[in-house]
Amino acid sequence: MLLRELKLENFRLFSQVEIDFSEQVNIITGMNGQGKTSILESLYYTALTKSFRTKNDKHAIQYDKDHFNINTSFYSDSQTRSKIRVYCSSEEGKHLFLDENKIVKFSEYIGTIPCVLLTLDDLKLTLGSPAERRRFLDILLSQVSPLYLDHLKNYRRSLMQRNAWLAKSTGSADQRELEIWNEQLVEHGTAIIMKRRELLEFLNSNLGDRYNLFVKNNESITVKYLCTLNPEKENLTKQFYDRLKRLNHTEKQRATTMTGPHRDDIEFYKNEKSFKEYGSQGENKTLVIALKLTEWEYLSRSRNTNPILLLDDIFGELDQNRIEALVKVLGTIGQAFITTTMEKFPYQGHKIVVKSGMIMHG
User: Fold this and answer.
1) Cβ neighbours of residue 321 under 8 Å, at least 6 residues apart?
2) Which of 16, 75, 246, 340 is most enclosed, with most CB atoms within 10 A?
3) Domain ranges in the chain?
4) What is the pLDDT of residues 311-331, one digit of tens each?
5) Which of 52, 13, 21, 75 is closest to 312 using CA atoms?
6) Closest CA to 214 of 340, 320, 82, 58
7) Cβ-Cβ contacts under 8 Å for 59 (sequence gap 6 or more)
8) Is the whole model's pTM more than 0.85, yes or no?
9) How far, in Å, CA of 23 to CA of 20, rounded?
10) Would you give the DSSP letter of residue 171?
11) Which of 129, 264, 258, 130 is nearest to 193 (CA)?
């Protein structure tokens, strides 16, 4: 999978710009606030139909304009060329086109261009909230499986409706309505947990190898699935129903659903010691980079194509040893897009210089 061309119109700082990309490493340089991250954001839109910087698409429309256009062309491994257009306006909202055909259901498109993103915020992934780690799992699995994404959307909808029922429940509340939401919650939640368990097995088999690219010692890296149910036990569906039944009274009191994949978490260990409790800042950064490289590998195997890799200004946070190790990996990973303020970047890739929303040369 290769992205070759990008055209932006009224996107962030960019009024009109065209960029050609290398099929290997593209280094996007410039001072802060010039538009480097916006280029990565537009590529993320191309892959996942949304921003990693804002939940409101209209915030990406250039000031005083009423719409933005993102046009990209990419080549499959068989050299078939396709065009993608993401259009968003203040009046019409967001629309997606593949080879000029409008995509009505975005979930059917996700995964067409597999993508891995690493930003400064991601460097807090292992130390942040469980919601951040669930988001990591969900974005990765949604790119691999459209069915997972459908289960996720249906689960969230069922959860919202169930919580609304719990908030208004009284002695006269319709118990059958609760049973309906329970059925949907269990159906979609069970599918989510099983798919997450499969991913955890892959992480446990491969994450240690990626981590040890950056350290001298051969460390044992493991990931534990902290689930409100026991995904290793048989009859997960029955477990889910039984737990909902046991918690029924407490959930009514608290007006919230207390079990299910929306409360799951994962925890990382080095030599059986928790990264969160014992890992240094440098070790946690190494773990997140290794996690993203493992994500890249999982997508590559699952989609049978190389994902694009987006690295947003992370090199300034790394010491020389980690920079050298990551640069070595970049030489083997395929197409990557890196933003940096470093004047002398330690890799001779295709250079794109950005200044005030303009491409100076590339």
Assistant:
1) 214
2) 340
3) 125-304
4) 999 998 888 888 889 988 988
5) 52
6) 320
7) 51, 53
8) yes
9) 10
10) T
11) 264
